[in-house]
Design brief:
The chain is an alpha/beta fold and about 500 residues long. The protein contains 15 helices and 27 strands. Strands 11-12-13-14-15 form a 5-stranded mixed β-sheet. The protein has a 5-stranded antiparallel β-sheet with strand order 17-16-18-20-21. It has a 4-stranded mixed β-sheet with strand order 2-1-10-9. The longest helix has 16 residues.
Length: about 500
């Protein structure tokens, strides 16, 4: 029996999950997952690593199906519930999934495809009562789950994690963030990514907590639960915090005071999955009294670095290595130990995935000869804390022989009072290799010359002449003034 299911036995009569369909105890979750396990086995003694895909809405049925796959000895392949059929077909074909579970609202998307391609469909809308027999013994080194990368530089790759990987990822966060049986959280995150699966659902259910599901995000629904006084832990991505802040701006002063008192009572608030703008962190502190705990992870490693639960949380930094996880920064030839010198983050530990599915060469290439996983993310150390500078393939702009962080430049630009948001990219240039370009969302009209002067005074010290960052002349097609809400390349 997988470890998380064993742990659930200790909380049998306690509420585990709340979703739009109702409230469910841990015993109900165990019973439902056992039924799913026998449904998948169909009289076999062990699935022996067969891939079982599932397109199920977040909630009780999702977790029951996931646990059922694990109990039967299968490998869980969660499908994104918003993907078009072509993207779903890619995952199903790549994993050679033999069975697929389909929720009622997705039958129109996937049922015909499954039938036409010889994949056994199981419909959540059609309950199944199986004879309960013995279930296989599942060793921790067996594959448990395949999640797909975002495919920013190539086709998405299937990341194979073992039960041992998943167990460690959860135990690591339970220890670092002090999860407790009394914790209650909400999940409105997609459940085909590590953030929702491990950090929210997995951790809360591992300790006997309560996990509530909000299938579709809305500012009103989330604020309603945040202000209920029942929750203790909240985890979200920067975009959600940005939306909640915008909603808060419409409140009266009395409402804002009420919000502050309710949010201040939370035990923990976390941001992840993308860089958290310092401006958002600071505004959320005004709203809630909390400095958001920012952390760093990815599909292949779960979480690896985190700001401390107790202690200083440095804005713009992702923190220090989590318990049991080794982290190093590598330059072109040697490990970097000095502050403020950029290098690639490399990870070693029980959290690191087993392999890319059916991609032996890609697996070999992503590890060093001494078995460190190469993340492709660039960071530097700042008094013991890691600061992410960006993806080496996307966010690091190589200009005039220097490496510039698009994320750091964005942080500076967001401080301008007329800028609501921005994005920085590198554009190919024959002379410099790449030059910096910025897309702005403005709150009011702004003269470009004024912005350029302001930026030259504030961009951080990259040990590079300022003219490398912002050229004196604007692009020929740039206008002298940009009106509110226009999206323009402002300078290069």
């Amino acid at each position: 029996m997988p470890l998380i299911t064993k742990k659930a036995l200790a909380f049998a009569g306690k509420t585990a999950i709340i979703d739009p369909k109702g409230n469910y105890t841990y015993q109900q979750l165990i019973d439902a997952s056992t039924q799913w396990a026998h449904r998948f086995l169909k009289g076999q003694s062990d699935l022996n690593g067969a891939r079982i895909a599932f397109m199920v809405s977040p909630g009780f049925d999702y977790v029951a199906v996931q646990w059922g796959i694990w109990q039967a000895g299968g490998v869980a392949v969660p499908l994104c519930v918003t993907y078009p059929l072509a993207s779903l077909a890619y995952v199903l074909e790549d994993t050679a999934a033999e069975q697929v579970v389909i929720d009622a609202e997705f039958e129109y998307v996937l049922l015909n495809y499954a039938n036409e391609n010889g994949i056994i469909p199981h419909l959540v809308s059609k309950p199944f009562l199986a004879e309960v027999l013995s279930l296989p013994s599942i060793s921790s080194d067996r594959p448990a789950m395949i999640l797909y990368t975002s495919g920013t530089t190539s086709l998405p790759k299937g990341v194979v994690s073992t039960h041992a990987n998943i167990d460690f990822q959860m135990e690591c966060l339970i220890q670092a963030w002090e999860w407790k049986e009394t914790d209650r959280t909400i999940c409105m995150l997609p459940l085909h990514h590590i953030h929702g699966i491990i950090n929210v659902v997995g951790c809360s259910l591992s300790v006997g907590g309560i996990c509530e599901f909000i299938p579709k995000f809305s500012e009103e629904a989330v604020f309603g639960r945040l202000l209920s006084g029942e929750l203790t832990v909240f985890m979200a991505v920067p975009t959600i915090y940005f939306k909640l802040i915008s909603h808060w701006d419409s409140f009266s002063e009395d409402q804002k005071q009420f919000v502050f008192q309710k949010l201040k009572a939370f035990r923990l608030m976390v941001s992840g999955s993308a860089a958290l703008p310092v401006s958002v962190m600071e505004k959320w502190h005004v709203i809630s009294g909390h400095w958001l705990l920012e952390r760093y992870g990815m599909t292949e490693i779960g979480m690896a670095i985190s700001n401390p639960f107790h202690g200083v949380r440095k804005p713009g930094h992702v923190g220090i290595p989590l318990p049991g996880v080794q982290v190093r920064l590598m330059g072109d030839e040697e490990e970097i130990k000095e502050d403020l010198v950029p290098g690639e983050i490399q990870i070693k530990g029980p959290n690191v995935f087993q392999a890319y599915w059916n991609k032996a060469q890609a697996t070999v290439e992503t590890f060093t000869e001494d078995a460190w996983f190469k993340t492709g993310d660039v960071a530097h150390l700042d008094q013991g804390y890691f600061k992410i500078l960006g993806r080496s393939s996307v966010d690091i702009i190589k200009s005039g022989g220097y490496k510039l962080s698009a994320l750091e430049i964005e942080e500076v630009i967001r401080q301008h009072p007329n800028v609501a948001d921005c994005g920085v990219v590198g554009l190919a240039d024959d002379e410099w290799g790449e030059i910096v370009a910025v897309v702005l969302v403005l709150t009011t009209d702004l003269e470009l010359s004024v912005l350029n002067t302001w930026l030259r005074e504030r961009l951080p010290g990259y040990k590079v002449p300022r003219k490398y960052l912002i050229q004196e002349e604007l692009p020929r097609n740039a206008m002298g003034k940009v009106t509110k809400n226009d999206l323009k390349l402002m300078f290069s």
